[in-house]
User: Fold this.
Amino acid sequence: MKILIVDDSMTSRMLFKAYMPKDGQHELFEASALPDALEMMREVRPELVVLDYNMPEYNGVEMARVMLDAGFKAKFVLLTANTQRTVVDSALAAGFILVVEKPVNAAKVAALLTQVA
Amino acid sequence: MELDELERDVLRELANVGLSRAATQLSELLNDHIEMTVPLVQVVPYDQVTQALQLDPLASVAAVWQSFSGQSEGTSILMFPSEDSKKLVHALVGPSVQGAGEDDLRGIEHEAMMEIGNIIITSGMAVIADMLGQEVRMSLPGYMEGNLPDILAQRNRDNAGREMQVIIMFTHLKAAQREIEGRMVMLMSVDSVQVLFERLHKLLKGL
Assistant:
């Protein structure tokens, strides 16, 4: 599965990558902001997009809306420590299928991949 | 001390995770959406913390702090303008204190602020500890009302006279439906941050 992670934090992207199963089943692509993310969506056509919430300029839910409005088809997962009810509700209303609480670990990444498969 | 790009990014993400969890707790306490800014990370001399936090040095704030220790040490402070802290306490325990006298009310406010601070600070620090895979011991919360330079001087009595650089990580927290705006700050000595970087490098290498 092609996965795009969008997070302004290089650390967060590194951690997610480090915890991905090394089974050759998944290919991870990275973006740190909306323009790179849209370019990746066009070039790679990921099946799964994992977005952080708290980012400069656009939050993760706003970014997903831009992607959906642009006609991209993918499953969206929000990855955040900001699990306020309002944030979770806005993500689910925008079409996210899952909200995963940061910090990530191997078990959370494995569960995420199982749930979206 | 200068932070390189990766070190700044590591601290910003730790702050983002810890402070986001703190915002989530505040949201649950107030049953209100909490807007938070992307955390700022800066290295500053201790006596310039107030300016770095963009606070009026004469303004009165209500602050709850908790020291943390373990492999890294520092202090987390949750602060609100004094007026906002009263609104916060009222929003939480208002109906139960009707009829209380002035002195009782003050005691209840201090008690409530310490409990609120404890919940918010501890949840933020716990998630950082999880992320680093290390234990962080938290002190009991302390409470003080006054201007921030006085509060910081009080917190730094042990280091008086020593030039100390600290790393601050902070965010603005703003309740959507109420005029309540706070700041959450983590202060760590440069030495402690070095320990934290070593831990994180080991963690990433081991994965």
Observations:
- Residues 2-116 of chain A form a domain with the Rossmann fold fold (CATH 3.40.50.2300).
- The mean pLDDT of chain A is 94.
